[in-house]
Write a structure and sequence with these properties.
By secondary structure, the chain is α/β, with parallel strands linked by helices. The protein has helices spanning about 5, 10-20, 25-30, 40-50, 85-90, 95-105, 120-125, 140-150; strands at about 65-70, 70-75, 110, 130-135, 155-160. The chain has 2 domains: about 1-60, no CATH class; about 65-160, no CATH class. The longest helix has 13 residues, at about 140-150. The termini are far apart.
């Protein structure tokens, strides 16, 4: 068993530890939603209806979880979601998360509101980089940002 699993056997244990390590204002930002937090509550209610059942001692099991999206193969059907100001939660968080995503071949999404630039994060993300665009109103700024994102290897742009 990994030492991390011994110290923090559940997500609730990790959550409690994390809450004690970051400033209160950052924790509120990270944990909160927008408006009345309706989406947060719907997500929690939806996950409450899911039960994972382990299948132990049933012989050899070799799951194939790779998936192709936008013409690119990923090693898992999930990725790292964008979090604005994640550098305020942990120093160099964007670079660390992007490097981890590249290593394990899953998408990493950099937020427009990140603490690091596309130029800094792009080399860490490799070809796993996506970008969450909050489009600036000024067309020149928006086009410049999109060009920087493209020039630094981000392959997918997400926007509302």
């Amino acid at each position: 068993m990994h030492p991390l699993e011994q110290d923090y056997p559940t997500i609730a244990d990790l959550r409690a530890r994390a809450r004690g390590r970051v400033p209160r204002s950052i924790w509120a930002f990270l944990e909160g939603g927008t408006g009345d937090d309706d989406c947060v509550q719907r997500n929690l209610a939806g996950f409450a209806h899911i039960t994972l059942l382990p299948r132990l001692l049933k012989g050899s099991f070799d799951p194939q979880i790779e998936t192709t999206l936008f013409g690119q193969l990923f090693q898992a059907p999930f990725g790292v979601a964008p979090v604005g100001l994640s550098g305020a939660i942990w120093p160099k968080a964007e670079c660390l998360l992007a490097a981890m995503a590249a290593k394990y071949r899953i998408p990493y999404t950099l937020s427009t509101l990140a603490g690091e630039t596309p130029e800094t994060v792009g080399p860490f993300a490799g070809d796993m980089g996506w970008f969450q665009l909050y489009p600036p109103r000024d067309r020149n700024i928006r086009e410049d940002l999109l060009q920087r994102v493209k020039d630094n290897g981000f392959r997918v742009v997400m926007s509302k």
